[in-house]
Amino acid sequence: MAIAIAVFAVLPRTAPGAAVGHALGIAGFALMIATEVAYSLRKRARTGAWGPMQTWLRVHIFTGIVGPALVLLHTNWRFSGLAGATAIAVMVVVVSGFVGRYLYTALPRTTAGEEMSQAAIAALLGELDTQLSQPGLAPRVSRQLTAARDRLKLRVVRIPRHRRLLALWHTVHVPLGVGMFVLGFAHVAVALYYGAGLR
Ligand code: HEM
Ligand code: HEM
Question: How far apart are the first and last CA of the chain?
Fold first, then answer.
């Protein structure tokens, strides 16, 4: 994120067809493809040997922000025509990502990123209750434990709704991403056709 902000500060304007602007477009687009492909592949790899989902999602979000930020620098703030439509689609996908991130974290999860089972949630609530019932608990600790227990209970009540919304979000976010890449590849094809003198 810091790198993206620094790049924004140093390079307020670059021509998309010039060397730097080109490099930004290509690097950003490559990062966006990596964002999509790496996470989708990891999600379908059902073994734990690839590291926790949590880490992959963190990387997905990082590259999903930095890639579009580089692409935005490449656009020269023009938002018309095919290339402009692509740029707007990129931003829609990123905003949609933030919505998904909210819904994703609203569901209680293990540190590995899996949704917690009913039994695991019950065990956690039981553990909080046990800690709360210990004699001589400092008032501050007691308040914190009570708040944690109440928060968890509220999240449990909302599980069905958040699960439904996350499923709905998936059905919107994925086609949005596909549409964005279709536009992106069309723009690259057009830019190369005209830009590289292939007429
Ligand atoms: C999703 C990713 C991308 C978006 C949103 C995007 C968007 C844009 C925008 C808005 C412009 C300015 C158009 C104008 O001046 O009217 C532009 C120009 C350009 N883009 Fe991209 N771009 C992306 C990726 C790429 C990639 C990967 C390449 C290279 C293969 C590329 C090559 C170019 C070229 C050569 C121009 C200059 C065209 C000209 O000056 O006529 N772009 N792009
Ligand atoms: C270039 C930008 C992005 C693209 C192309 C993209 C694409 C995708 C795709 C295709 C999936 C579905 C993976 C699957 O179910 O197999 C996904 C999931 C997800 N993305 Fe993105 N994304 C982008 C940026 C972001 C950003 C910026 C965020 C957060 C701020 C984000 C958050 C999420 C979340 C929370 C999930 C769901 C995780 C899950 O249910 O396992 N994405 N993304």
Answer: 39
For atom 7 of ligand 2, which residue has the closest CA?
Answer: 36
Asked whether residue 199 carries a pLDDT value surpassing 60, the answer given is no
187 touches ligand 1 (CB under 6 Å):
yes
CB atoms within 10 A of CB 186: 14
What ligand has the least distance to the C-alpha of 38?
2
SS (H, E, C) 89-145: HHHHHHHHHHHHHHHHHHCCECCCCCECCHHHHHHHHHHHHHHHCCCCCCHHHHHHH
Q: Dump pLDDT digits (tens) for 8-61.
A: 655 555 555 566 778 888 999 999 999 888 888 888 876 666 777 888 899 999
CA of 181 to the centre of ligand 1 (A): 13
Q: What's the confidence (pLDDT) of residue 136?
A: 87
Total tally of structural domains belonging to the chain: 1
Both tokens of residue 129? 């209750």
Task: Determine the structural domain holding residue 62 and report its residue range.
Answer: 2-123+172-195
* pTM (global) more than 0.90: no
Using the mean position of ligand 2's atoms as its centre, give its distance from the Cα of residue 45 in Å: 16
**In-domain check, residue 98:** yes
Decide which of 110 and 196 is more confident: 110
Decide if 146 is inside a domain.
no
Residue 118 lies inside a defined structural domain of this protein: yes
* Ligand nearest to the backbone CA of 68: 2
What distance in angstroms lies between residue 18's CA and the mean position of ligand 1's atoms?
Answer: 10
On whether residue 159 sits in a domain, the answer given is no
